[in-house]
Amino acid sequence: MVMIRKSRAEDTNALETLFQITRQKTFKLTPSQNFAIGDYIKSTEGEEVWVAEENGNITGFISLWLADNFIHNLFVHPYFQNQGIGKQLLKKAEERLSTPMELKVTMGNDKACHFYEKQGW
Fold first, then answer.
1. Can you tell me the distance from the alpha carbon of 108 to that of 60, in angstroms, rounded to the nearest whole number?
2. CATH number, span 3-118
3. Residues of the chain with pLDDT > 70: what percent?
4. What is the DSSP string of the chain?
5. Phi-psi region for residue 53, left (φ > 0), alpha (ψ -120 to 50) or beta?
6. pLDDT band at residue 96 using 50, 70 and 90 as cut-offs
7. N or C, which terminus of the chain has less Cβ within 10 Å?
8. What is the DSSP letter of 46?
């Protein structure tokens, strides 16, 4: 069973790896060397981060910029996609943020666009 919880400092290494792997698999037109360990810390600085955890493994995360009601990052490890984890993380964001909420999606990321549309965005 997937548990959604606030991230902890000891999650950083797992989140760095998940962020790197997922971006490499998702953004195939970008050279893989453009995605590095350390990017997660830079991308989520000052944000509230929630993780999806199953059997002690972090399977995804969402980062929120609370001041602007903004969903900055939502990533689910490729192995765990299409299992409802993104939907659970998005639900957590909707609990934490006020309306209207905003998010960003990279152009050409059709899978993410379809996901958000399916969720009513």
1. 21
2. 3.40.630.30
3. 96
4. --EEEE--GGGHHHHHHHHHHHHHHH-TTS-GGGS-TTHHHHHHTT-EEEEEEETTEEEEEEEEEGGGTEEEEEEE-GGGTTSSHHHHHHHHHHHHSPSSPEE---TT-HHHHHHHHHTT-
5. beta
6. very high
7. N
8. T
Predicted confidence (pLDDT) per residue in 8-45, tens digit: 999 999 999 999 999 988 887 676 777 778 889 999 99
pTM of this structure: 0.92
Is a pLDDT exceeding 70 seen at residue 54? yes
For the chain, the domains span 3-118
